[in-house]
Write a structure and sequence with these properties.
With 66 residues, this protein is an all-beta fold. It has a 5-stranded mixed beta barrel with strand order 1-2-3-5-4. A hairpin with a 4-residue loop joins strand 1 and strand 2. The chain is 0% helix and 56% strand. The chain is globular.
Length: 66
């Protein structure tokens, strides 16, 4: 799935990804980013969805374009 990083909180190591397929923003933690440490708002990313007890989260996140 592809999306755009909507907001990244550097101090906390997580942020949110916006997609055309989902109404809600998708949570992403820095430990799930594969080809860099942190993301920036506006980065285009490719990722997979994992369902958790708190909702969905992005995993195997890779920057496609920044």
């Amino acid at each position: 799935m592809k999306g755009v990083v909507k907001k990244w909180l550097y101090d906390h190591g997580f942020g949110f990804i916006k997609t055309n397929e989902s109404r809600k923003d998708i949570f992403c933690h820095s430990r799930d980013v594969k080809n860099c440490y942190d993301l920036d708002s506006g980065d285009i990313v490719d990722f997979e969805i994992e369902k958790t007890d708190k909702g969905v989260r992005a995993v195997n996140v890779k920057i496609v374009y920044n």
